[in-house]
Write a sequence for this structure.
């Protein structure tokens, strides 16, 4: 079953963005950032920077000793009654979960929010096997109901307005749904409550894995994660191998960083610690627990000194919130599960540059993502590294434009090195642009400049600054001469008055 996308055409995707998307996205990300800033400022800027460095060092240490910690984790999960399954690829992971479901005659699955299961395309695989799968996170429930896909790591339905969701509930659930967040949440909760009680299997991802105790940690703001893990008799967690941390002290650091940076909370509403299974079916909790450890290309990423820091990510989504590109295009144009800056560096490494070679170029390199990342991932450095690899591999559209990009850079450098050539070029551009000029803007330009104007108009080329600068310098020197002449005249007048006064006195 094919689950990974074909070639991702980021630039082409940006030409078909619905007009409502940028406004809805910016409204939501602005709220996230305001809450995050308040939480960080309350913690203290200096302490926050120290904590970021600790988080970075801790996560990097774990990655560098990943084999050791994974062995410790497996031993501790199994000693608590759980079963550990290893999946090298997305296909292996899907097969493992499907076989567990078929062995237990599962017909209904309730699922908590999970990027890893989105990555491997688990829902479609189970549904093709005749198993009903229901997303129970509110945002995931909404996008599943709409036949859509998540557009944000922590806010899957961030691209939809309350009015859109109300119309969706009315059309798909047959209820009168006012455009009110609280009312919409209650409608969804009423629909989901029965599903938890009748489900045969619960599935989730995982925020962290504590190696010392074999504990799976779920960090959520809804009770659905805990319900998926405890009510159905079988529980399966699909977690990337990079999510492991050494011990409880490490978890304390992560639980300080993650909620503050993601949603501006000191602590999320629910932190679930799952350490095995119950011995008796009369007790709360699943009687069968499977932990599927997903590789799917992560081991290959670990080989590179710079690129491996991509795996430090704790999925807070803050880099999406602050990214000017994401805020103007939304998440779907990134073509796969991961969007924004983290998607621009993770997707090409998981899918390959042949498929996702355009994504590293989907950035202004402003560095805002570096500054906001809670574990200090050097995102811009990784973007540049991937850009270099994309150009060297010369695949697809990027490869065909390599020569043009190099020639353009050389021509620009030559023009900027000579003030006279720069001045002539500026004057020439004023004439060349006339056929394309519309009300002071250039809405449509020929290739390769159309790569910009396909998304937004370009301001007209002007030479006002140089003219103003010449006038300013000339006017400035003239003003000083006038002032000097005035001072001399006043001094002469004062001297004449003084001589006249002296003559009168004598």
């Amino acid at each position: 079953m094919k689950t990974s996308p074909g070639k991702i055409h980021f630039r082409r995707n940006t030409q078909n963005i619905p007009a409502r998307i940028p406004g809805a996205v910016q409204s939501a990300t602005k709220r996230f950032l305001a809450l995050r800033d308040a939480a960080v400022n309350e913690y203290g800027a200096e302490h926050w920077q120290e904590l970021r460095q600790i988080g970075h060092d801790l996560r990097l240490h774990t990655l560098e000793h990943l084999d050791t910690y994974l062995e410790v984790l497996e031993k501790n999960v199994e000693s608590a009654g759980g079963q550990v399954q290893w999946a090298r690829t997305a296909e292996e992971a899907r097969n493992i979960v499907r076989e567990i479901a078929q062995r237990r005659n599962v017909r209904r699955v309730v699922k908590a929010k999970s990027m890893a299961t989105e990555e491997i395309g688990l829902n479609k695989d189970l549904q093709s096997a005749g198993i009903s799968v229901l997303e129970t996170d509110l945002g995931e429930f909404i996008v599943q109901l709409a036949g859509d896909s998540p557009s944000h790591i922590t806010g899957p339905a961030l691209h939809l307005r309350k009015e859109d969701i109300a119309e969706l509930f009315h059309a798909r659930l047959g209820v009168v749904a006012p455009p009110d967040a609280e009312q919409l949440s209650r409608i969804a909760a009423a629909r989901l409550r029965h599903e938890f009680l009748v489900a045969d299997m619960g599935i989730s991802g995982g925020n962290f894995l504590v190696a010392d105790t074999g504990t799976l940690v779920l960090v959520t703001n809804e009770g659905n994660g805990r319900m998926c893990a405890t009510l159905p008799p079988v529980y399966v967690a699909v977690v990337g191998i990079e999510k492991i941390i050494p011990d409880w002290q490490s978890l304390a650091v992560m639980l300080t960083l993650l909620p503050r940076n993601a949603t501006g909370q000191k602590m999320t509403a629910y932190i679930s610690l799952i350490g095995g299974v119950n011995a008796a079916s009369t007790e709360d909790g699943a009687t069968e627990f499977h932990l599927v450890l997903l590789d799917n290309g992560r081991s290959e990423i670990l080989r590179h000194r710079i690129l491996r820091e991509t795996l430090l990510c704790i999925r807070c989504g803050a880099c999406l919130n602050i990214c000017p590109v994401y805020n103007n295009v939304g998440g779907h144009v990134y073509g796969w599960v991961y969007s924004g800056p983290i998607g621009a560096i993770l997707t090409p490494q998981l899918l390959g540059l042949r498929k996702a070679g355009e994504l590293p170029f989907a950035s202004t390199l402003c560095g805002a993502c570096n500054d906001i990342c809670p574990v200090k991932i050097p995102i811009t450095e990784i973007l540049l590294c991937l850009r270099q690899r994309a150009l060297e591999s010369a695949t697809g559209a990027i490869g065909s434009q390599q020569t043009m990009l190099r020639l353009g850079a050389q021509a620009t450098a030559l023009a900027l090195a000579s003030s006279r050539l720069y001045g002539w070029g500026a004057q020439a551009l004023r004439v060349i642009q006339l056929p394309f000029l519309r009300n002071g803007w250039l809405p449509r330009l020929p290739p390769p400049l159309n790569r910009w104007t396909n998304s937004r108009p370009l301001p007209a080329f002007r030479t006002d600054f140089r003219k103003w600068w010449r006038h300013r310098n000339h006017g400035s020197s003239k003003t000083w001469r006038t002032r000097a002449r005035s001072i001399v005249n006043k001094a002469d007048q004062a001297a004449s008055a003084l001589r006249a006064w002296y003559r009168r006195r004598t």
Observations:
- The longest strand covers residues 234-240.
- Residues 404 and 410 are 10 Å apart (CA to CA).
